[in-house]
Each structure stands twice: as C-alpha cells, then as structure tokens.
Here is the input.
Amino acid sequence: MEAMRARLLLAGAFLALFFPLLVLPADSATLEGLAMKALLGEGEESLYPKLLADREAGQLSSLDPAGQVGNLRIHWPPDRPAPTQEHVDALKSALVTQEVFWDARLRALEAEFPDLEGDAWLELQLQLEDGDRELLLVDPQGQTVGGQRLARRWSLVPPLIAIVLAFLTRSTVPSLLTGVLVGSFLAAAQGKAWYTGLSLFVVDILWHGILTDSFHLYILGFVLVLSATVTLVTRMGGIEGMVKVFLRWAKTRRSVQAVAYFLGMGIFFDDYANTMIVGNSTGPLFDRLKVSRAKLAYIVDSTAAPVAGVALLSTWVAYQISTYAPQLPTIGLSPNEGYSLFLETIPYRFYCLLALFMVGLVIFSQRDFGPMRVEEEAARQGRSQSFAGGEKGAENQSPAPGVKARWFNGVFPLFAVMVGFTAFLIFYLGAQEVAAAIAEGDAEAAALKEQGGFPYIREILKLSPSTKAIFFGSLAAFGTAFLLAIGQRLLPLKDIAVTSARGLSTLFKDAVLILILAWSIAKVCEHLGTAGYLVATTQDLINPLLLPIILFITSCFVAFSTGSSWATMAIMQPNVVLLAHRLGDGSPLGSHGLLVLSIGAVLEGAIFGDHCSPISDTTVLSSIASRCKHIEHVRTQAPYALLVAAVALAAGYFPTAFFQVSPWMSLAVGAVGLGLFVRFRGKPFAS
Here is the structure.
C-alpha cells in the first residue's frame, strides 16, 4: 500500500509539471515556421537540398527546368495576415541566409538561394489546408511541391502515457509499448496514407526506422557483443582479477564509488562507450562491497553525457556544434566560429558541471536522500531490489573452476583494446570521411585539413561514424578475450561458445526490448511533431532576459518527452541562433552574450531532460550496463538530477541573465548550495 501511494505521488507530481503544456496554446506562427523549414531546408528530400543536388548532378527538374533558378518567392494567401518574424526566421534558417524580404505589393517573402547561381525566380504559393492543420507549397501550375502537417496537442499523449504508466506500474516494457501503439495509431489517423497504425509501427518505425538503420544496429551490436565479452572475461577470471586489484585501494564503499566516478570522467570521448565499459567492469566490485546497482547506474549516467558534453574534444562536442554552426551565417558569423562559441558556453554549462560535482559530493560525503538512500540501505543489508540479473551468480559472475583470476585478462580486452581501439577508430574513420569529402570537392574540409590542429580534429569528430567505431571496438575486445582464453587454455571452445551465448541472452529478454521500444517512441514523436509542439507552446513566453530560462525548461520537456537529447538539440538550436541574436540586441547581455548563454541553456536542458526520461536510450543503456532494473534507476536518479537542475536555474541562469553575474560565481554558489543541501538533507550511514 505504501509503495502504491509513492507511485501515485510520483505520477501525480509529473502530471502537475506536465499539465501546463497540455493547456497552453501553441503559437501558430511557430508551428507554421517549423513546417516551412522542414519543407524547404531540412533533410535531403526537402526543396532546397534537392535543388542543390540536381544542379550539382547536372539534372533538370520541374522546379528548375532551365537550370537558372537563383531566387525564391513564397506568395502569402490573401486572406491571411502578413508573415511574422517566426516565418521570416524559418526561411532564413532553411536557406541559411541573412537576407529575407517582404514584398507587400506581391504579398510574398523573397530570398536568394545562397548556393544556386541564376536570375530566375521559383514562384511558390503557401496554402493551409484541412482547417489550418497542413501547410502546403504549391507551384504556379497548381501542383503541390510539398506538404507538412502541423503538430497538434495530441502529439503529447504517447510519451505522457508511457511515462505515467512506467511510474505507476514500474513495468517499462508494457508502458513503452502502450505509448508506441497509441502514438502509431494517432500518427496514422492524422495522415492520408492507406496504412494503419499497426503497419506504421511495424513497417515504418520498427523495420525501416530501427532494425534496418545502421546507427541503431551498430548500437545494438555494440551492446550485445560487449555483454558477451564481459561474460567471457568474467568466466576466464578477468573481472575477478580486476576486482582484486581495485580492492587494493578500493576497500571501502566510498572508494569503490570513486573508482567508477574517475573511470567515468576518464572515458570522455564517447558517452556510449563510457556507460557500457564503466557499468560492466565495476558492477561486481559494487556487489562485493554492498553498494547498490542503482547507485552505480546513477554514477554511470551522470558522468557519461555531462563529461562528453563539456570535454574539449568528443563525439558529443562535434555533434553539439553541428546543431547550431550551420545557422551562424544567418547572423553574419562563419560556421567555423562554432567551436569558439562552444568554448564560450562552457562556463554556462551549469547543469553538466554541477551534475559532475554532485556525483563527487554524494560519493565523498557518503550521504544520500530520497529513494536512493532507501536502496542503499537495502544493499547494505543484502536485500537490494535494484539488481536486474535475478539472483547473484545467475549471470555466471564467477570464474570457471580451476581458472586463476588475473587482472590482465580483464584490463587488456576491456580497457586497452576496447577503449584504445574505439578511440583509434573514431579518429581513423573520421579522417576517411574528411578525405572522401575533399575528394568530392569540399573546399572547407580541404582547408581544415591543411590548417591541421584542433580545427581538423573537430572536423574528424564531426564526420566520424562513432557508433560504427564502438561496435568494431567491442568486436575487437571480444576477439582479444577469445584469443586470451584459447591461448592460455583457460576455457575449452565449447565453454567459450556457451558463455558468450549466455552473455547475449541475458540482455535479449528485457534490456534490448526496452532499448528498441525507447527508440520507437522517439520515432513516434517525430511523426507526430511532439518536439515542435512543445517549442510552440512556449513561444509567447519569451523575452530577452527570460530567454535562456525558457529555453532550458523547454529543452528539458522536449528531451524528457521524446527521450532524445540529440533530437532536442537539433530542433531547438537552429531557432535559438536567430532568436537570441534578434532579442539580444538592446538587452543588457547584448546579442552575442544572449546567444552564448542561450546555446548553453539548450544543451544543458536537453541533457537534463534526457537524464530524467524513462524513455531515453542513454537512461536505458545506463540501466543495462549497470545491471539495474530500469525503473529503479529512473526513480532513484530523478531527485538528484532535479535538485541539480533547480540549482542550475536558481544559481545559474537567473542571476546570469537578469543581473549579469559571472558564471564562475554562479557555479561556486551552486556548488555551495548543493553541499548545504546534501549536508542537511542527506543522511550518513552507520559504519
């Protein structure tokens, strides 16, 4: 009864936070602007990229029959008001241009295609159909060039159902599946295609969107192969050997958590590799010293993305820059200034920096609060419920009979090979991509290679297929473990095969299914336009001083609802560049100052929302790597993440935006605030 009351309280608190988004009106101009941008400049199939591709290939199209189109004119319906700044910014963002004009006589928005030479005009008519639910672009012959449905309020329903059910039932798979199916039927119902919601889920989302997509397949392969590797390394005594070595200086609960913390800080180049390696390699050490798997999952999750997000060089940094750098020409800056802008945002990355501080604070103070304290107390008494592998030992966590535990058999495949080879592949494959771009005539890539140094390395990380690198890194680690087992005659071939298969099967039942469903609901949200609708609900609240705070909160809700920090950054940042630069003019922060603070706020809000979301792939991976029940990880980590976010707002974004306080002063005040909270609200354990 007490447990159900707690679940109802948690679900009620979430609904109370989410309720304003269900009742706030969405700004129609923002929704139309997002739809315009999707039709004109987002993705290879949108209008401008297709025109560019046809021109480069020497092909003529119906929109550019003479190959002379260099300008765009979008005629506005006579029965509608003139376009707002949101429409203008959407066109600037889609075409990556500074110059967009309104011709009142023709009632048309006019712009030049930056990379298309020619004097001819592409004339299009904007139309809104189906009760203003679908935006169309129509050519002079009346043919529809493209259409985009505007996001509706019901786009919030699928993630809301999945999250509330997960809190109420503590059963992740049924909750996610319900949200995915509801969303699939809603997406099918609002479209004009023939397929049903079920076929949308199975064919479009599950098959084409995930199971045949290289990005998702590489992650699944990486997770499964690394699990098989860890199981094999355990069987051949490698993990036991590592535990014995760690125990030389990790003899207390505090020090064993510190080992995971510093390992997480050290593997900064990729969050997926960080999560899986730290969680899998230190789990048995936590069991030995009776620290809960929930605490391990928290340490793993709260060091992986924050470290990768603020490191000077990482796959995350490259991606973060790529979300806003292409839009910099719209405000008169070069895309090459993206990295210098990123460096300027680091002092304003309040959530990431304070989250890293909070993990260390909790570890070294040995004080916990909320559900985490209850779980830690249970772990110390040997009755923890967070372990996701059933009974200890069910995963064959002990070496095979007669096998001597050697640290080398664990450290070499998991750290020297997995970490080292993955880092090498990220740079090697990225360098190949840069070379391929240069071979295709990319002048910018050629200039960066000639320049060398940090600019060239950033381009490598930007283009590198990092998921491919971590998959082949895990294969190399498995191959190394196999050769060590055979070469030292530790295990017979049959035992190696059975052990590896057991490592794969332990994840198939729940963990991989949760991961696939988490990706599925993110795809459903893409179909429904959930993220765009959330952005549109906050548009009317924005003013210069509130902008970073609103952006942080909006990014939180978008990432929490969609389960993806990267998707949130990709949707928010192009709008932020123009909006912050426009609103900052005349504000105390200035255009540049507000731009830097706003970019940092979006990145931080996205990471925080992703941290707390039960439908996030990184949250799922942290649970998998730590062998922690997924919903236990979510509910034990949430109070810590919420506290850090609250402090980031109160001590960070409010004073820096309203009073121009130094970010370093804000970080110091935030750290003191966290320290005081843990000191007086957290409780130490009896020794």
Notes: The chain has a mean pLDDT of 86. Residues 2-26+154-200 form one domain.
